[in-house]
Amino acid sequence: MSDEYDLKICCMGAGYVGGPTMAVIAANCPKVRVCVVDLSQKQIDAWNSSKLPIYEPGLPEVVAKCINKNLFFSTDIEGEIDKADVVFISVNTPTKTQGIGAGRAANIKNCELCARTIAQVSKSDKIVVEKSTVPVRTADAVRRVLKCNDKGLKFQVLSNPEFLAEGTAVTDLQNPDRVLIGGQQTPEGLKAVETVASVYANWIPRERILTTNLWSSELSKLVANAFLAQRVSSINSISALCESTGADVSEISRAVGMDDRIGKRFLQSSVGFGGSCFQKDILNLVYLCDTYGLHECSEYWNQVVKLNDYQKKRFSRKMVSKMFNTVTGKKIAILGFAFKKDTGDVRETPSMFVVRDLLQEQANIHIYDPEVEREEMFKEMEYTCNVTLANTPRLEESITTSPDAYSACDGAHALATLTEWDEFKTLDFEKIYKSMAKPAFVFDGRNILDHDKLREIGFEVYAIGKPDPSSFDDL
Question: Are 236 and 304 within 8 A, CB to CB?
């Protein structure tokens, strides 16, 4: 270590986790040198530019504060690993698409490749930290690979899972509920844990830095996401019952959430959960349970995913059924494609599944999202839904990406809000109504609009978990 820095960190992976996490560490630790490395020159160039590769409120300011001071982005993977005292592994661990465990098990190939590179190029002992979300006991595989180095080097492997949420990542990193660090309960392991804990202690109170054994830390991340997704699926299951009985899911959520034992967070009914974590991590948990012969546990958690799939399909079917059982040739405006507001991430977005269903019904779809590029939409539809130009005739002509909400809705038979962007709440719906075909339908998949006002304007409105006034005379 040079006198200039107390510690040198290298992070392998410049994606949604590695970039923001390392930027916040650098911003809070001026005596720590942080370098994020990646194979993609395009990704690294974007981090070094004024237009970052990911959209996250507050992130540009954090990066600008310390870039080229103690924060660096580079493709010199081997050189930066060699310099580092601590190496974070923050690479993608997607669900396997083929082979044993396909559709459920996490593919940790990238983690293993990182470990092999670290073992190959290192010239000194290092602390290696799993930042990626991985199956429990992945650290054992990483440790075994590192131990096979032929230079007599010693590595301590830690688990430090991320708990940030896209759209609020910077806030979550600056003021986290907790930081979790797991390591071997040996003198060397505990010393390594303390080294990483002391980095976070520069801005996070010690009582929020939790230390555990390796396996508890790895499993805690999967369980946290499973519990959050479970709450979403639970309230979404009730939304279907509300629509059939005249109850209002928002009132149910408020009544239930006021119970301190339950709490109010993650009780907002919607078209379904998306993002890179929830479904992947639950399916990983399902596979782990099956692997250890815990089939009843596996079935329990798998139901959370099945309910989410049901909710998305239920929304699509309602759109078709309410529009006289056909949307063929009709223009449908889709407001929002990202899986949640304040992010451009489209991985597993519910909007994509609704679009897929409407494509199968031969609708003409016009999509507006303030942060999602057309290329990203098509890339995710191909990867997750296998919707391609080859198997979907007229795909390019059937999907139009609109520059704003008004042009998306102009002449449309229906509009559907599928991402809860704040700007959708303040649209001029009288103007939109005048521009649409009649009857004009609104399908609110996020419950962000004023339904009573929309009905006064003339819209026919359907929303998740909300009773249809025309179907009940005793609301």
Answer: no
Distance set, CA 347 to CA 12, 65, 205 (Å): 21, 29, 33
Give catalytic residue positions. 277
Helices (H) and strands (E) in the chain, counts: 18, 14
- At 133-153, the pLDDT tens digits run 898 899 999 999 999 999 999
Tell me if the pTM is above 0.90.
yes
Alpha helices in 124-213 (DSSP H): 138-147, 169-174, 187-200
Residues 433 and 459 sit within 8 Å (Cβ to Cβ): yes
Measured distance between the N- and C-terminal CA atoms of the chain, rounded to whole angstroms: 70
* Phi/psi of residue 408, nearest 5 degrees: -65, -40
Residue 439: cis peptide before it, omega within 30 degrees of 0: yes
Using one digit for the tens of pLDDT, what is the confidence trace for 375-424?
999 999 999 999 999 999 899 999 999 999 999 999 999 999 999 999 99
Which residues is 322 bridged to in the sheet?
A: none
Give the C-alpha separation, 183 to 162, whole Å. Answer: 15
**Which helix (H) or strand (E) segment is 281 a member of?**
helix 278-291
**Other C-beta atoms lying within 10 Å of the C-beta of residue 96:** 19
Buried/exposed 295-313: b ≥16 CB within 10 Å, e otherwise: eeebeebbbbbebbebbbe
DSSP string for 31-97: TEEEEEE-S-HHHHHHHTSSS-SS--TTHHHHHHHHBTTTEEEES-HHHHHHH-SEEEE----PBPS
> Do 318 and 399 meet the contact criterion of CB atoms below 8 Å apart?
no
